[in-house]
Design a protein that fits this description.
This protein is mainly alpha-helical. Helix content is 69%, strand content 0%.
Amino acid sequence: MGDLRPDDYDVWAVEVAMETLERRIKPIVSDAPLSAQTRFNNALLNLAVNRIVAVEGGTFTAGILWRLADAIADGKKPEPGKAVDLTYVGS
């Protein structure tokens, strides 16, 4: 990892975090009652947004979510091993 640029390292670290979460989430969801399983994605999104707001503040979080919406509209799909960079602020 010493040969990675800081931006490459950030993307790699996000991918590792996503893969770790995905592995750990699957058994949690499958063990939950069906009523919770069908609402899990919504709950996970709410938890994530609340965590980002608590750390980054509302304005910065809104920017991240705006960039995520643009990325999804452009056909990009954030998934383990293929993180979408949401930190870029274009001019």
